[in-house]
Design a protein that fits this description.
By secondary structure, this protein is α/β, with parallel strands linked by helices. The protein contains 10 helices and 5 strands.
Length: 297
């Protein structure tokens, strides 16, 4: 499966603005980038007439990332509220659907940015402590994430909202044979997916497609379902609540929804997780290998 850096190497940078570029969210890159920047700035002025400024400047350096991460987190939460509002006002029109898709894309982008900057903030805090020997404490708030500081009342309120969401889903549930789909995010060939799903529909005329809405194979499957007028149930990962575990929790939700089977297109850890859990429950899992990529001559 292609990493964001592989995509840049293969396809170059996009022309649609920085928000469409892949986000470097692996911990090694964040730590190395912050560490090198920290050393370049403070290693230069340490032992000079500016040495007394290292502590306040290093503190400000770490706080810069922390404040921006909190700001993006708050923006993602506001976007989540907007998504809930749009879901409630869907009228089946293409414009409404596009607006919801754009809101969802923006929410995912904000959350990914926030998560990346949280990692950078922690790396900067650790660099501050190593350089100064002092414990890092932000000017406002706490070093832990905002969610870790939630009071019991807030936690209970969120549980109540989640229960209400599940109740709404239950009232509006779609009946039929639920078939889950997962697959590689870099899958671009729609033909094998359409053929396999057509065969599944022939066996299960009341088929309901379940997926997470991820790019690649799952979005191709979603386009197939729309074309064939097959009902869909979207199990979007709850990034705000579960962070990096969100896609795996979404897999668990699909299994809880009592799917009858799953189709896995290509590899990928998240898809394999769904397949293994489904097989452990005795469900049938069809595995469709990814098309072979042409070799360089």
């Amino acid at each position: 499966m292609l990493t964001p850096y592989d995509e840049i190497e293969l396809f170059g940078l996009t022309e649609n603005g920085a928000d469409d570029l892949p986000i470097p969210n692996d911990e090694d890159l964040q730590g190395r980038a912050v560490g090198e920047a920290f050393e370049a700035i403070f290693g230069t002025i340490q032992g000079t007439g500016l040495g007394s400024e290292v502590e306040p400047l290093a503190h400000a350096f770490a706080t810069m990332f922390q404040r921006r991460a909190v700001s993006l987190d708050q923006a993602a939460d506001r976007q989540k509220v907007k998504i809930k509002s749009l879901v409630g006002t869907q009228d089946g029109s293409e414009i409404a659907e596009q607006e919801l898709d754009e809101a969802t894309r923006l929410y995912t982008m904000l959350q990914e940015k926030a998560d990346a900057l949280k990692g950078m903030a922690e790396a900067a805090a650790q660099a501050y402590e190593q350089e100064t020997g002092e414990h890092y404490t932000p000017v406002t708030g706490d070093r832990t994430t905002r969610r870790a500081m939630e009071t019991g009342a807030v936690f209970e309120a969120k549980k109540l909202l989640e229960a209400a969401d599940r109740a709404d889903a239950e009232r509006n549930k779609v009946t039929g044979t639920k078939i889950a789909v997962a697959g590689a995010s870099d899958w671009i060939d729609s033909a094998p997916i359409w053929r396999r799903l057509d065969a599944a529909l022939a066996k299960c005329p009341d088929m309901v497609l379940c997926h997470k809405g991820s790019r690649g194979a799952e979005r191709i499957a979603a386009a197939w379902a729309k074309s064939r007028k097959v009902p869909q149930i979207l199990f979007r990962p709850n990034w705000a609540a579960h962070n990096k575990a969100a896609p795996f929790r979404a897999n668990d939700e699909m299994l809880t929804a009592k799917i009858k089977g799953a189709i896995l297109f290509g590899g990928g850890g998240i898809g394999l997780n769904l397949a293994e859990k489904a097989e452990a429950k005795g469900l049938h899992v069809a595995r469709v290998p990814a098309p072979e990529k042409p070799r360089d001559v």
